[in-house]
Design a protein that fits this description.
The structure holds 2 protein chains of 2 kinds. Chain A has helices spanning about 35-45, 60-65, 85-95, 115-125, 150-155, 180-195, 310-335, 375-380, and strands spanning about 5-10, 20, 25, 30, 35, 50-55, 75, 100-105, 110, 130-135, 135-145, 165-170, 175, 205, 210, 215-220, 225, 230, 235, 240-245, 245-250, 255, 260, 265, 270, 275-280, 280-285, 285-290, 295, 305. By secondary structure, chain A is of the alpha/beta class. In chain A, the strands form 7 sheets. Chain A has an 8-stranded mixed β-sheet with strand order 14-15-18-21-24-27-28-29. In chain B, the strands form 2 sheets. A 4-stranded parallel β-sheet of chain B has the order 1-3-5-6. A two-stranded parallel sheet of chain B has the order 2-4. In chain B, strand 5 (about 80-85), helix 4 (about 85-95) and strand 6 form a beta-alpha-beta unit. In chain B, helix 2 (about 25-40) packs parallel to helix 3 (about 60-75). Chain B is of the alpha/beta class. Classes of the chains: A alpha/beta, B alpha/beta. Strand 12 of chain A pairs antiparallel with strand 7 of chain B.
C-alpha cells in the first residue's frame, strides 16, 4: 500500500512554550537529529516512502545539508498565511502521484505508537479520516484516504481542528511525549539516552552508553560518564565532565573544567570554562533551568555564546583567537618567573581561570605567591590546602571538586 | 587502526577487578588500600569496581583517594566505577559532589557487566530524577479499543 506523509512544523498558534530561542522545538536537535528527522525515520520504519515537511520556520543549513541526500524527504517552507494552502497542495500532489493513504502529523507530540495498527484501524473503519489520540487527548495525527481531497481540504482549512464528517478515533498505545515545552524536549533526550524508548542517539556507541557522531574532539582529562551523547563537530575541552545524561549536540563546545550534568547543549552553543550546568537546556545564549522552571538570557560571552554556523567564519574566528593568544603566551613564557611553580595534577572538573582570554592555569605570576595545590597525593593528604591571602581580581580559585 | 567493534570485544575479554573498600576510609586506611589496588591501576586499560557496601566512615582523604584512583585509571584509558554504596558513603559523595564523577551501580555484578554493555536500569539515579521524572511507562496508553472513539466533527 502506498502511504505518504505530511509533517507540519511551526504551524500557526504554536504556543511560545513550544519554542526555544525563537525556534520550534520540532526543529531543534535531540540526540543528533531534529524531532522532524526522528519522526521521519519512524515513519520510514513503517513503510512510508515519501514524507513532505511543511514548515513556517526554515530549518538551519546544517539540517538541510544533513537531509539533502534523502530523496524520501521533501522540505516545503512557507509563511504562516500560506501554510494550509501548501498542505492542500502537497496532499494533492501525493494523491496524483499514486498515494492511497496520507498521514498528516502536526509536530507537536512525539509518539512511538504502532502506525501499522493505526492504518489498519483506518481501513477497517472504512473511514475517510481517522485521528489518533491517547488518554490525555488528541495527538493531531490523522490518516486521510488519498481519494478524499475535499475532506483533506476541509481539515486543513480548519487548521486540523474540525473534520468534514465523522472521524474515527484510534487510541494510541506506546510512548507519548507532548513536546509542549523545553522540559519535554529534554525529557525526550533523557528517555532516549536511558533507552526507555525506541529513539536512539545518532552515530556509534563507542563505549557502553556513550554515543558519538562523526568527527568530534575530546581533549585529555575529560571525564565522560554513561549515558552521554556527543554530536558531530563538538569540542569538549580538557578536564570537562559530562555526566548523568549529558547531550552535547553538533558543533557545540564545552570549555575547560565545565561540568555538564543531566543537560542538553544545543548545536553551535559555547559554554564557558569552569561552569556547572545542571538540569538545563542551553542554546541561543539562553539557559532554561528545568528544576527551577526559569529561562535566562546570558549576555556574557564568556559564560554562554553562540558560534556561527558558517564553517569558514568559524575557522577564521579560531585563527583570530589563536593570533591573539599565542603572542601573549610567548611573552609570558619568556618573562614570567619560573620559581616555585609546582606541577599541578589536573583532575576532572578542576580549572583555574586567569584572564578571560586565556584558559591556561597560571600559578607563577608572582614569586611570593604560595602554590594552591600540591603536586603529589601523599603531600595533599598530609598537609592542609593553603590558600593565598589575596587573590588577583581576575583569578577564579580552582574548584577541586564540588561546591563547598 | 582498531575498529570500535574490536575495542568493545577487547573490553569484554579483559578482566574486571572488584575490590571491597574497608569500613573506615581515613588517611591511613586510604594509603593501605591504595597500595593494594596500585598494581591493578597500573595495568593496561584497567576496569575496576570499588564496592563500598562495608564503608561506615568516609572522610576527605578517602574521597581524595577515590579521585586519585579514577585519575590513574583514566590515564591508562580505563575506568573506575562504584557499587553498593552504603548510606554513609552516599552522603559524603553527594556532599562533595564527587558522586557525579563516577558511574554508580546498585551491585558490583552490575558494575562489572557495565564494562561490556550499557545497563541503564542498573545505574543509580540521582534524587532529582525520582522527584521530577515522568518516565515512559506512565505515558504509555492502556489497551486500545478495537472500535475507536468517534470524534465530534
Amino acid at each position: 500500500m502506498d502511504v505518504r506523509a505530511i509533517l507540519l512544523v511551526g504551524a500557526p498558534a504554536t504556543p511560545d512554550a513550544a519554542r526555544f530561542g525563537g525556534r520550534p522545538l520540532a526543529l531543534l536537535d535531540v540526540l543528533g537529529k531534529t524531532l522532524v528527522e526522528h519522526v521521519a525515520d519512524r515513519m520510514r520504519h513503517f513503510g512510508v516512502e515519501e514524507i513532505a515537511i511543511v514548515t513556517t520556520c526554515k530549518p538551519d543549513n546544517f539540517v538541510l545539508r544533513r537531509t539533502v541526500g534523502d530523496r524520501s524527504l521533501q522540505w516545503h517552507a512557507t509563511n504562516e498565511d500560506g501554510l494550509w494552502r501548501k498542505c492542500e497542495q502537497v496532499f494533492g500532489e501525493h494523491a496524483q502521484s499514486g498515494a492511497e493513504l496520507v498521514l498528516v502529523w502536526r509536530l507537536g507530540a512525539y509518539t512511538e505508537m504502532n502506525f501499522d495498527q493505526f492504518i489498519q484501524f483506518h481501513l477497517d473503519q472504512a473511514a475517510r479520516v481517522s485521528s489518533a489520540a491517547d488518554a490525555n487527548g488528541p495527538l493531531e495525527i490523522f490518516a486521510i484516504s488519498a481519494s478524499r481531497r475535499n475532506d483533506a481540504a476541509f481539515l486543513f482549512r480548519h487548521a486540523l481542528m474540525r473534520t468534514r464528517d465523522f472521524c474515527s478515533q484510534f487510541l494510541a498505545q506506546g510512548y507519548v511525549n507532548r513536546m509542549q515545552n523545553v522540559e519535554d524536549m529534554h525529557r525526550l533526550a533523557q528517555d532516549g539516552l536511558y533507552q526507555r524508548i525506541g529513539l536512539r542517539p545518532s552515530g556509534k556507541e563507542i563505549r557502553p552508553g556513550i554515543w558519538t557522531e562523526g568527527r568530534m574532539r575530546v581533549e585529555r582529562g575529560v571525564r565522560i560518564l554513561a549515558p552521554a551523547f556527543i554530536g558531530s563537530g563538538a569540542k569538549i575541552r580538557a578536564t570537562a565532565v559530562l555526566t548523568r545524561g549529558a547531550a552535547i549536540e553538533h558543533h557545540a563546545e564545552v570549555d575547560c573544567g565545565t561540568v555538564v550534568e543531566n543537560s542538553s547543549v544545543l548545536p553551535f552553543s559555547y559554554i564557558g570554562a569552569g561552569l556547572d550546568i545542571c538540569h538545563a537546556v542551553v542554546g541561543f545564549r539562553r539557559l532554561a533551568h528545568l528544576l527551577r522552571k526559569i529561562e535566562v538570557e546570558i549576555a556574557d560571552r564568556r559564560l554562554l555564546s553562540m558560534k556561527t554556523s558558517n564553517a569558514p567564519r568559524r575557522v577564521a574566528g579560531a585563527l583570530a583567537n589563536l593570533a591573539k593568544v599565542v603572542p601573549v603566551e610567548i611573552v609570558r613564557g619568556i618573562f614570567a618567573s619560573s620559581a616555585d611553580a609546582p606541577a599541578l595534577e589536573i583532575l576532572p572538573g578542576m580549572h583555574a581561570l586567569a584572564p578571560a582570554s586565556s584558559t591556561s592555569i597560571s600559578a607563577s605570576r608572582e614569586s611570593e605567591r604560595r602554590p594552591i595545590m600540591r603536586s603529589n597525593f601523599s603531600d595533599r593528604l598530609e598537609n592542609a590546602m593553603e590558600f593565598p591571602a589575596d587573590f588577583e581580581n581576575d583569578f577564579i580559585p580552582v574548584r577541586r571538586y564540588g561546591n563547598h | 587502526m582498531e575498529t570500535i567493534k574490536e575495542n568493545l570485544k577487547k573490553d569484554k575479554s579483559r578482566p574486571v577487578v572488584v575490590k571491597r573498600m574497608p569500613a573506615h576510609v581515613n588517611l591511613s586506611q586510604s594509603r593501605k588500600f591504595l597500595r593494594e589496588v596500585q598494581p591493578f591501576l597500573q595495568a593496561d586499560r584497567p576496569q575496576i569496581v570499588f564496592d563500598l557496601s562495608n564503608v561506615r566512615q568516609l572522610d576527605a582523604a578517602g574521597v581524595d583517594m577515590l579521585l586519585h584512583c579514577m585519575n590513574q585509571a583514566m590515564k591508562r584509558d580505563g575506568d573506575l566505577k562504584l557499587a553498593s554504596l552504603s548510606p554513609q558513603s552516599i552522603v559524603v559523595l553527594e556532599m562533595t559532589r564527587t558522586d557525579r564523577l563516577f558511574e554508580i551501580y546498585e551491585t558490583s555484578t552490575d558494575a562489572a557487566r557495565s564494562f561490556s554493555s550499557f545497563l541503564p536500569n542498573t545505574l543509580r539515579q540521582p534524587r532529582y530524577v525520582s522527584d521530577h521524572a515522568t518516565l515512559a511507562p506512565s505515558a504509555i496508553a492502556e489497551e486500545p479499543s478495537s472500535e475507536g472513539v468517534p470524534l465530534a466533527a
